[in-house]
Amino acid sequence: MTHKDVLVVGFGIAGSSLAHQLEQLGKSFDIVSNNSQQATRVAGGVLNPIVLKRYKKVWMAKEFYASAVKFYSSIETKLKTTFIQQPNLFKLLQSPQDCNDFISATERSYISNFLTSIKSPSHPHLSNAVIKLGEVNHIYTLDLNTYLDESMKYFNDSFYLDNFNYNKLKIGNSSVSYQSKSYQYVIFCEGYGVIDNPFFNHLPIYGNKGEYLIIHSKDLNSNQSIYKSKYFLIPLGNDLYKFGANYQRHELNNEPTEAIRLELSKAFETMFSVDYQIVDQLAGVRPTVKDRRPILGEHEKYSQLFIFNGNGSRGVLASPYLAENMVQHIFYKQPILDDVDIKRYVV
Ligand SMILES: Cc1cc2nc3c(=O)[nH]c(=O)nc-3n(C[C@H](O)[C@H](O)[C@H](O)COP(=O)(O)OP(=O)(O)OC[C@H]3O[C@@H](n4cnc5c(N)ncnc54)[C@H](O)[C@@H]3O)c2cc1C
User: Fold this and answer.
1) Segment (H or E) for 237
2) Which burial class, exposed, middle or buried, applies to 172 when counting CB atoms under 10 A from its CB (0-12, 13-18, 19+)?
3) 83: which of 35, 93, 146, 248 fits an S-S bond (Cβ 3.0–4.6 Å)?
């Protein structure tokens, strides 16, 4: 029976960043993943450490952002591909109060690195209700499908496109076996698919569905800029844009809905008056936790089983830092960040 250090279950942003970190440490591993969850593939892929509604830092903003920028740049080089863009981001300001709030936020520590100044709108098709644009710099967007597809190809020899069968996991004293292989550890990264995991489905991980419209418009002519009102308009290139996403706690599946299509198209039309076509609509389920912190750590009974989940609405930003924390914990006994440690849910 062949033996490897780790079996990674799930290849979204959590599992993939873990795999890259494991490789960097010279650890041997296999990956099993299906396509039942789509959060990473559907995500906006915006690396943004600021909550643009309230102009506050997201939790661990500085650490997550620095780690993410370094990680994704290094993966681009490693995979010899391109999936990072650095567009301008403009927050739409619709009242003098909006403008004052933005200007005062430009003076806050750390936030001042991103929020720069306000300027008059120059887009010919932007709604008249927008009086100024708040400019936000140093925001990146990732083409997550390219990132995942190229990562899968890179790990081809150790990647199995399959449903993980929990009944086939045999847990020994110091290792586990699955199919015909043995592993020292299994790390579960199934996103919202965790609800089917008998070892970890007692954790308070809930789904929060989000949908995007994919819009084609020649008139929009905004291939270098993100616009943010309630929703984001994110350029994809070739006159295509993502517009969304909403948050919804029911119908937790990957099926787009007519109701959200109407809601998003109405919101788009209040932002821009242009000719456009909806060419696609995407949906995915964010794995969110009651206390809004991810969950990392080992199973209370089986010390070979670990979880890395609950990445919520900022998983693309947070995963590189957390994946490193996870592997440093497993192999070098570094502590897991208190706020994300699974121990907070051990009774
Ligand atoms: C609409 C939307 C927009 C978002 N925008 C952003 C953003 O702009 N910036 C940001 O930082 N975050 C964003 N997020 C959040 C981010 O996408 C998630 O936090 C992140 O993708 C979760 O990653 P994950 O790897 O934990 O889960 P997933 O991406 O769901 O990956 C889990 C993987 O495990 C597989 N799997 C599950 N069960 C099994 C099984 N039994 N056997 C085998 N494989 C299995 C799944 O098929 C999937 O491949 C967004 C999310 C959504 C839905």
Assistant:
1) strand 232-237
2) exposed
3) 146
pLDDT for 334 equals: 97
* Residue 275 parent element (H or E): none
Q: Report how far residue 120's alpha carbon sits from residue 130's, in angstroms, rounded to the nearest whole number.
A: 9
pLDDT in tens, 215-263: 999 999 888 899 999 999 999 999 999 999 999 999 999 999 999 999 9
Residue 245 CA, closest ligand 1 atom number = 1
Closest ligand 1 atom to 311 CA: 19
pLDDT at 128: 87
Cβ of residue 92 lying under 6 Å from some atom of ligand 1: no
Q: Can you tell me the ipTM of this complex?
A: 0.99
Q: Give the position, in ligand 1's atom list, of the atom nearest the Cα of 284.
A: 53
Hey, how many other C-beta atoms are within 10 angstroms of the C-beta on 205? 25
Q: Does the beta carbon of 134 lie inside 6 Å of ligand 1?
A: no
Give me the percent of the chain exceeding a pLDDT of 90.
Answer: 94
pLDDT less than 50: residues of the chain: none
Polymer length in residues for the chain: 347
Nearest Cα to 115, choosing from 124, 125, 104?
104
Q: Which residue has the tokens 């969304």?
A: 244
